[in-house]
Amino acid sequence: MKDLTNVDIRPGITILSVLKHLNYKPYYALAEFVDNSIDSCIKKEVDLKAIEGHSYNLKVDIEFDNNNRRIIIKDNAGGIHSDDYQRAFRTAELPPDPTQLSEFGMGMKSAACWFSNKWQVKTTALGEELERTVNFDISTIVEDKIQELEISSRPVTATSHYTVLTLYDVEEKMPVKRGLGKVKHHLASIYRDFFRRGVLELYINGEKLEYKEPKILNGPYYETPEGDNIVWKQQVDFDFGRDRDGQSLRATGFVAIMETMSVKDSGFALFRRGRVIEGSADKDEGFRPAAISGSLGSHRYKRLFGELHLEGFKVSHTKDGFQWDDNMDAFLGVLKEELESPESLPILKQADKLRVRETSKNYEKVSKTVVDNTTDKIKTGISQDVGNLTEKSTQALVKSITLEKTEESYHKQFCLNLSDIDYVVHIELSYDETIDELIQVGDHLIPEEIPLHKNIGIRLSLTHPFMVEFAGDDRKVIEPLLRIIVALGLSEIIVKKTGAPITELRNNMNELLLGSLSKI
C-alpha cells in the first residue's frame, strides 16, 4: 500500500472550469457515478465476494439533500486503490482497463464539476487500511493554478470498501419534483439489465429503483383473429460489417409489440456493455427510426419497442449517444431485413394492422381520470361561459331524448343554472359495446335523481370504431375529444333552449372552447 499525502490533478487544470458547461442532463451526469461503481464492482468481483460472500450485491445510494444543497453518492464497491489513486483524479487519463463502463478517464470529474464547483471524494479500497479524502474547490484550483491537492486519511479495517462522493452548493442543477421523478425513471431504464442480472441495487433517497417491463402482446395474427395466440417478441442477432478501424459490428436483442399502445414506452433502447446509451426512457428519448417504428403517431410507432445490444460502436464521452459514423443506415437496413424475413414473426405488419378493443378495466381507469379532470376543471367557469350565451334568448328548452342507462361507463356531474333553471350536467365516458353512437346528448338516467333539477347527459363512446381506431385508451387523445363533445352538447342544449339558428351551434361551441374547457 502506497503512502499518499498529495494527489496530482494535472494536466490542464483549467479544463476543470469548463466542464460545468458540458451538455449533460442530470440523469446522464449521475449515471457517470453509477458507471464507476459498477466498473469497480465488476473488476473486484472475486475479491468482494471472497469477503462478503456470494450473495454480495453492489449497492449505490444517491441522496438529494435539498435543505443543505448537497448530493451524496455512496457505494459499497471496491473503492479507489492506492495504485490507481493518482490516475483517478487526473482529467482525461485513461484507465488501464477501458473495456468496462469506466473508459474515458472523465466521468467522475466531468459529472462532479457539471453539478458543482465544490465536491469531495472519500474512499477506502478493499484490502487497504486507510480511508482517504480529497476536496475539490474548482474556483480556487483554477484561480491559484493549484497542481496538487492534499489528501487527509484515517485508519479503517482492511475489509472496508466504499466510496462516498459529496457535491456541495448544488443549486439550479438539483433535481426537484418532476425533475426528480424523471431522474428516477431514466436511471431505472438505463440500468435495467444490471437489475435483472442481480449486479446492482440502485437507491434514490432510500427508494430502490425498479424497471417496469412493458407487457408484450399475446394474441392472434390480425389476419386470423380466431387463430392461436402468439407472443409477439422476435429475437434478433446479426452482424452488419465493420467500422473504420476494422472492428466487427454486431446487434443482439429483441423487437416486440406492446399489449397496450403507449408513446411513453414505445421505441428502442440501445445498449452497450449492458448499459442503455440511447432510448433510456419516455417519449422524448426513445430511439424510433421511421424505417422501423413507422411514422409519428402511427399504430406501429405507439406499439413497437425493443432492446438492442450493440457491439463494436464507440460512444460520446458523456455516454448519451453512439458515434454512428456511416453505419446507422446499414444497421437499420439489416434490422428491417431480419424483421421481414420468412423466419421472423410478421411483427411489423402486426404492429401496423392490429386494432385492439381495450379491456373494460383499461377503459374504466382512463374514463375516471378523464371525466374527473374535465369536470373538475370546468364546473366553476362553465356557468359563466354558458350564461353569456343563454342571455341572447329566453325561449323554452326543447325536450331532449333519453339516454339508455349503462353500467359499463364512468360519469361525473356538476350543477349548472340556465336562465334560473337548475340543471345537473352529467359527463360520461361509456365502454359498453352495445352503444352504437359516438356522441349522445340527452336526459341522463341515474339512480339518485336530484329534486327540482333537470338532467343533461353528454356521453362519448370509447368502443365506437372511430375511438378504437384513433384513441384506444390514451387519455391524452380522449380528454381533448371529450372536452369538444362537452362543448357540442352544451351548445346543442343552448340552441334548443334559445331557438337560435342552427349556425349558432358552431358559434357557441367556439365560444365555450375559449373558456374553461381550454384550461389545463
3D structure, described in words:
It is a single chain. This protein has about 525 residues and is α+β, with helices and mostly antiparallel strands. It folds into three domains: about 5-210, Histidine kinase-like ATPase, C-terminal domain (Heat Shock Protein 90); about 220-355, Ribosomal Protein S5, domain 2, CATH 3.30.230; about 360-520, no CATH class. It has 18 helices and 22 strands. The protein has helices at about 15-20, 25-45, 45-50, 80-90, 105-115, 140-145, 180-190, 190-195, 280-285, 290-295, 300-305, 330-340, 345-355, 360-380, 380-390, 465-470, 475-500, 505-510, and strands at about 5-10, 60-65, 70-75, 120-125, 130-135, 150-155, 160-170, 200-205, 205-210, 220, 230, 235-240, 250-255, 265-270, 275-280, 305-310, 315, 320-325, 410-420, 420-430, 440, 455-460. The chain has a nine-stranded mixed beta sheet with strand order 1-6-5-4-7-3-2-8-9. A hairpin with a 2-residue loop joins strand 14 and strand 15. Helix 14 (about 360-380) crosses helix 17. The chain is elongated and about 95 Å long. The N and C termini lie far apart (about 60 Å). Mean pLDDT is about 85; it is low at about 395-400.
